[in-house]
Fold:
Amino acid sequence: MKKRISKALLMTALITNSLLVSSVTAFAEESLNEYSLDTMVVTATRTEKVLSEIPASVSVVTDKDIEKMHVNTINEVLSRVPGIYSSRLKGIANSSPTILMRGLNNQAQNLVLVDGQPLNDASSAVVGWSDIPVDSVARIEVVKGTASALYGSQAMGGVVNIITKNPSKGERKVSVGYGSNATWIKRASIGDKINDKLSFRIAYEGRETHGFVNKFVNTDPKSKKPSGTIIDENSISGLIKTETNTGKSTYRTGTVGRNHFDEDNIHSKFVYNFTDSKELSFSFTHHKDEYGYNYTAFNNYIRYNNQPYKGNIKLENGQYLTIDDSKYTGTPGGKTQNIYALNYNDKDNDIKISLGLLDTKHNWSGWISPVNGKGTKSDTPNKRWNFNIQKSVDLTNKDEMVFGLQYTKDSMHKTEHNLVNGELNKQSKGNTRSYGLYIQNDHKFDNKWSILSGIRYDNWKVYDSWMQLDKDKSKTIYYPARSDSSFSPKIALQYKIDDESNLFTSWGKAFAAPTLQKMFSGSASSASYTEANPNLNPQTVKTVEIGYKKKFGESTILGVTYYHNDINDLLYTRKTGLGKITYTVNGSTYTKDKQRVENAGTATTNGIELDLNHKINDQWSMFANYMYQQSKIDKCSTNGAAEGKIMTYVPKHVFNLGVDYSAGKWNSELVGSYQSKMYAQDNNSDTAKGVYTAYDPYFVVDFNLTYSMDKNSSISFAVNNLFDKEYYSYNLCEGRNYMLTVDYNF
Structure:
């Protein structure tokens, strides 16, 4: 009965109610109410061009679109963009959500920029999607497909370019939101002109939540009889029999408590206008967050004589479980990061210069055993410097050329300390630098045909890298310097059918250099021991793409794109053949097979992206986008069981449907999102659904309603997961949750 009611409510809401965001489309500049292929975009070609002249799949989201969405982080914004998969792991408490494009399964294969500075960190290429205050975003441009010909490493799946707001005169704004799980979101911004040339904007954003229970304790049964006292299963209570994601029997014995999260962001931007065409801007962002599971005590389900039980249990099937406090300890962590971006733009001479630094001062996680009081703290500070200079030239009235030089330097120093006595357990250090030279030419044959061609050369070097295995410095391993290079070509042909439609096709090659973490930072836990591998090669991809864009009248825009990827040198973990090692973690000794990441795989990806936007009338509009991606492993030298299987962490189907209603002081939005099942095991053995660590298929509906009391103030109410769908994306995802927000402009 409940399911029937939910389905009826859903159909009624989708047909008669409201939703979504206009512009999460490549073709809308301000909102869904403005249908134009004349939106200006800079990311796709590094020069200003209208969408109708770009032979690529491009999406644009503006600040007005973001205001309508009532989302809390940038990755939530991008989840509605066609051709993007965004993970929905732990809600606002997720410290490192993932954005994936074009069937690739790693964040390090997509380049993310903020005001020209790469946001992928120097250690693992992870992106802090919540580091930039949402209210500071002017627009987001998403270019899907190979982009290494202009941007170099990591631009395999595409580029996400976040452009922050320039200061505006007399800006004074505050916003306060409160929602489920004691969640607070506070924002404030101020901006003004100091004089005719200099202006500034400063924004603050704070988020905190006491979270929900999403991480469970599953205890696997063992055949070997443990030492010590053993209690029969029928003498205890609270034991829940369940499954692992591969269908094996396991027992849920408790939770680690609520996942709390607390972060603060400060973003500032200063702009100096020498003239109307010459501008210098400087932006600075400070981010700090902390997370953990200690807001409430862990929950041990197991009871013996009405008391929490720690010890050994004999199951009725003759197997055994061991319950101790260490199973219920969640790992806390946090990050402190500064982002600097200096940009000079001379429109008269078509020169752009950018200089930036992503400085992750601390990126730590710690663990203390409640059994023996021992523990460790791991910290990975890292820096990424970036410099780019480019020049645009009109060679003829049919040729526009762009050429430039880019320099990037990455550094990482990882340490692990004993939390009891402060001693250094081990440390590692890695450095890379790269030079990139690129050139691109846009040639127009006539009013209908044009060709865009470009190539980039990158030289990449690893140097001053070593690993100290423990506090004994005599065991330090020094790695010799080495270098690599890559040519990244791209060519795209476009045919402008008429003023309302065009067709394009392109071919390109892109690469992603291995991260410092994978080359120089091994890991050891109670489950496995992974060695560093300093000899990793870049991953590469060759892509063919065909796209079509069409505007029907004044109210409808359709986009269709097909792509094919051939991926080489995929990174896979080699689990056998390296011997065994005995090591100590938090006072306990383990003997495990060594494993390490190697360039061991090739894969093929085929995909289709569909994007439809339709204005029904002056009050109603809707959008729909669908992504199909079939990513399969062709060869894997380290794991034959992966061959022919679907690539991990890549859903085959992603679908969004939204409706928006806006009239007078009211605006209402409803959006439904579907994602098919994903696999975490490279042999696709994790087929079980509805269990902890599974990646379930899901369809969720989000709703928000806004009332503008006057031009300066508004109140909004948002409900996510409207029908309280229960599903897992490794962790249990958040059920129905609410947020009430008040905005006021002074």
Q: What stands out?
A: The helical segments are 2-16, 63-69, 74-78, 148-151, 516-520. The mean pLDDT is 88.
